[in-house]
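Hypothesis: this fold can be encoded by more than one sequence.
Test: take the structure tokens below, design a sequence, compare later.
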């Protein structure tokens, strides 16, 4: 009898989990359900009038193995592209002026003195304070601290406020004063512990990583995407799941999970009434706040651990311009904005100058990010207002007054988990509780990384957990059957 596994959630995490299950165990019967009518979750690539718009992430971090690795495994390796070399520069907006981000950043940390010394983003006093990292001793003890506290202690308030905080916010949309260092950038604390200083430690870690990769000096991929957008990954995974005998159902939602004599009973809401199905294993690949109530009937502690992970919402405003003058102004990848600037736009990406093929010739495509921790009120504004806010930003920062020919707004309610202080303990409590629920796993961006490679790895790890559990159950059942008297 085939083992039946249900994957709940059709984002990249659930797709990766289902694909991994079927690739490694084609004998399994795998069904993936997604409450939305489309697959992909936050991956949302839209084509409109020749523009290729990403409504969620626009790329993957290539140095993390499961982005390029999975792409090659499913035949998309030759579809990967890197950002434009000609426009490879990004900026920080400080007091109304764009400052180029100094070269030589490694894990948020400036590791080249020349570029930082020439930068107008940091004052001479701030640069001198940063150099004090070479003399400052590590903090005693092993207690966690906030990202803001650690970076300010090592490199000074100015470097943190003007450079590190806006870069960090571009990843987590969070407040560094609340985010846990050990949950977000544990390698930085380890660099301090092992080498006595942050910059020295990060440089040592980089040399070790280069040596471990063969020491060939080859340039590793940074951010990568696909020629026609990230939807290529979603579509290819979905096609492979079906080709391998899996089932995908969209537009249906799971409302209840219950234990039964053999495995679990799942209630699925449909337009024509509820449907129940029995499964041996379950992978929950949804947002933490959506998974928590489903886990409650199975284990209160696992549900509570998920429920205590805070989330923030944000929105992406994409504007397309039929004006060569606009395209000429976008001579880079975009900019990030420090929290201390008190501006409604958190960051802006100039997609048409960052990636090939994202706008028709002579046209320009930009994306603005609004809504971060502590600045959620703007998300209550109507879409027209959000467009006006972004257009005002473009006028003030770049002098662009042209009217966009297209505008698309993408809302992500509760879409970004916050790795606040205590996050490691919450994850540990969750994993301990899940260890007691045989055949059930949780995966997603709420664990140890919010990027696409992290989600892929999380989905595949969850699949392995379920496989291990089911193999154990099967072995136990076989052994028990062998001891039944004739």
């Amino acid at each position: 009898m085939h083992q039946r596994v249900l994957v709940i959630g059709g984002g990249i995490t659930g797709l990766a989990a289902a694909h991994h299950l079927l690739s490694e165990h084609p004998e399994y019967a795998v069904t993936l359900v997604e409450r939305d009518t489309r697959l992909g979750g936050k991956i949302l690539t839209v084509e409109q009038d020749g523009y290729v718009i990403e409504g969620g992430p626009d790329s993957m971090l290539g140095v993390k193995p499961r982005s390029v690795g999975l792409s090659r495994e499913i035949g998309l390796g030759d579809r990967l592209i890197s950002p434009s070399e000609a426009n490879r520069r990004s900026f920080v907006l400080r007091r109304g002026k764009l400052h180029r981000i100094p070269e030589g950043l490694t894990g948020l940390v400036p590791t080249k003195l020349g570029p930082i010394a020439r930068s107008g983003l940091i004052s001479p006093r701030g640069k001198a304070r940063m150099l004090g990292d070479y003399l400052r001793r590590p903090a005693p003890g092993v207690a966690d601290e906030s990202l803001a506290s650690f970076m300010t202690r090592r490199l000074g308030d100015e470097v943190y406020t003007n450079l590190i905080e806006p870069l960090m916010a571009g990843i987590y949309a969070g407040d560094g004063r609340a985010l846990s260092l050990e949950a977000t950038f544990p390698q930085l604390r380890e660099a301090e512990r092992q080498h006595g200083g942050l910059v020295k430690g990060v440089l040592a870690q980089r040399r070790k990583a280069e040596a471990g990769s063969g020491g060939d000096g080859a340039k590793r991929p940074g951010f990568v995407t696909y020629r026609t957008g990230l939807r290529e990954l979603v579509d290819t995974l979905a096609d492979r799941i079906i080709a391998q005998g899996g089932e995908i159902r969209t537009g249906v939602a799971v409302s209840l999970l219950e234990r039964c004599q053999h495995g679990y009973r799942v209630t699925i809401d449909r337009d024509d009434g509820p449907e129940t199905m029995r499964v041996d294993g379950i992978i929950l690949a949804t947002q933490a706040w959506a998974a928590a109530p489903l886990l409650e009937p199975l284990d209160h502690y696992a549900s509570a651990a998920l429920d205590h992970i805070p989330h923030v919402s944000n929105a992406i405003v994409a504007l397309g311009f039929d004006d060569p003058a606009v395209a000429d102004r976008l001579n880079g990848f975009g900019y990030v904005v420090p929290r201390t600037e008190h501006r409604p736009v958190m960051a802006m990406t100039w997609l048409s100058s960052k990636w090939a093929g994202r706008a028709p010739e002579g046209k320009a495509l930009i994306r603005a990010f609004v809504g971060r921790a502590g600045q959620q009120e703007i998300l209550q504004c109507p879409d027209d207002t959000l467009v006006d806010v972004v257009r005002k930003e473009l006028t003030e920062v770049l002098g662009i007054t042209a009217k966009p020919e297209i505008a698309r707004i993408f809302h992500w309610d509760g879409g970004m988990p916050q790795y606040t202080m205590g996050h490691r303990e919450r994850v540990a409590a969750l994993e301990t509780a899940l260890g007691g629920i045989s055949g059930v796993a949780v995966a997603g961006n709420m664990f140890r990384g919010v990027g696409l490679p992290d989600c892929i790895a999380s989905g595949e790890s969850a699949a392995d957990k379920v496989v291990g559990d089911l193999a154990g159950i099967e072995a136990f059942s076989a052994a028990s059957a062998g001891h039944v008297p004739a």
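Residues 101-212 form a domain with the protoporphyrinogen ix oxidase, domain 3 fold (CATH 1.10.3110.10). DSSP finds 17 helices and 22 strands in the chain.
Hypothesis status: open.
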